[in-house]
Amino acid sequence: MKISGVIFDAFGTLIDVKKRTNPFLQLLKHGRRQGRKFRSGATQIIMTQDLDLTEAALSLEIRIGYLGLQRLERLLEEELNSMTLFPDALEAIDMLRQAGIRIAICSNLASVYGPPVQQLLQGLDAFGFSYQIGATKPSPIMYMETCKLLGVAPGELLTTGERVLMIGDSRPFDRDGARANGISGFWINRGDGGDFSNLVDFAEMVVANVNAP
Does the reported pTM lie above 0.85? Predict the structure, then answer.
C-alpha cells in the first residue's frame, strides 16, 4: 500500500485558537438585531467568497457603522493573534515530510483567516480553503479540489494501491465526509473517543504504512 498524500483540517486539528471572538458571528448577530433573518446561507456566503468584514456586511445587507466595524476588526485581530499551533503539529508534519508524503490543508474558513493559516503552516504542499474553492465541507467539491491542488487522486486504492488520508476534529466533515469521497478519513479527539487523541500517533501510523504491502 502506498500513501500518496495526507490532508489535515486546520482549526482544532493543527491550529489552536486560544481566544475565540467570532467577529463574523458577531456581525450576523448585529444583522439579526436589525430584523435580518439569516439561515445557513449567510455562513455559506462568508465561507465561500473572498470577503472581509466590510464586504461581508455589504453582501449580507447588514447596516453597521464605522465604530461597529472597528469593534469587529479589533475582535478579529485579537482572534488572529491568539492562533497558535498545537504542540504536536510540527512534529507530526516533520515526520510525514521526512517520509516523502505530500501534505495539504482542507478547511472551511472566511478569507481573512487564510493568510494567517498559511503563515503558521509554511511549506505545505497545498491549501484547500473554502473561500477559494467556493464550497464547504462536506461538499465533495472540497475534497476533490484539495486533492487536485495536492496532485493526488482520492480512491486510487482500487486501481493503483495508493491512498489519500485525512484527519480533523470534525467526525462528520473530516472522517465521514472524507470517507464518502474516496479518502481514508480519521477523527482526532484530544479528549477521548476519537480515532486518535494526538497527531504524532497518527503520523506514526501513516509512516509505518507508507510502504506496507
Answer: yes
